[in-house]
Amino acid sequence: MGKDYLGLQLKDMPYFRAVLRAVECRFYQDYPLTSPVLDLGCGDGHFATLAFEHMLDVGIDPWAGPVQEAGKRGGYRLAVQGYGDKLPFPDGYFASALSNSVLEHIPDLDPVLAEMNRVLQPGGLFLFCVPSHHFLDNLSISTGFDRFGLRGLGDAYRRFFNRISRHHHCDSPEVWQARLDKAGFSIEKWWHYFSPRALHILEWGHYFGLPSWITRMTLGKWILARADWNLALTRAVVAPAYDEPAEQPKGSYTFYVVRKKEY
């Protein structure tokens, strides 16, 4: 039996984030990352400490507070504040890299992908995940508007949800193929994950999760009682999303396995 990523995530995060991150944790187990490893957009380091049994070499993020927290968690040998388009490392320094649900938040991706290519060794593995082109169409509230012929309201809700999610990119594999090829990467494999039903859990969690946001803002914790008994009902609600097949034809997110081209 594998590691219970869902249980571990639920103890620290709002349920709608926990189930998505738990699903993503499992994907990395099939792709060992050769050291030295770079985590682009490491945030507070919570994801890396659960997804990997060993320390990663470097985590980098533009926000000072999360980087300091990442340094304290012990998931990285070095946690650095910096930007993806100006990575403070020499050419070919890293053997592999990851970026978990980060690239969609960056308006101008070309300089970031170019820098990632520069700091990776030839043939270096790069794993990342982003919202797919199905993301907006999978939202339940906008779909409801569409069914009643209220497409304008549906589109307005899609724009609203994309804005609160801070998404600049919800692209198809074809768009990513062109973007990555330009940056000097080749795609080995990709798959969509997180079904429309699973996304509905995440979507409504933004509203039902308000109490968790309040405790985070006032007490510094998303979850006050981390005991299994307190999370049993929540787990029952989100477990179907965690247990569904990894690959979903119209999945709301896409996981990419790419390598730096060898010339």
Architecture overview:
The mean pLDDT is 94. This protein has helices at 5-10, 15-27, 46-51, 64-73, 109-119, 140-147, 151-164, 173-183, 196-208, 210-219, 228-243, and strands at 37-40, 56-61, 76-81, 94-100, 120-131, 185-193, 253-260. By secondary structure, the protein is an alpha/beta fold. Strand 4 (94-100), helix 5 and strand 5 form a beta-alpha-beta unit. The radius of gyration is 18 Å and the shape is globular. Helices cover 45% and strands 20% of the residues. Strands 3-2-1-4-5-7-6 form a 7-stranded mixed β-sheet, sandwiched between helices. The chain contains 11 helices and 7 strands. The termini are far apart.
List keywords for this structure.
alpha/beta, 263 residues, seven-stranded mixed beta sheet, globular, 20% strand
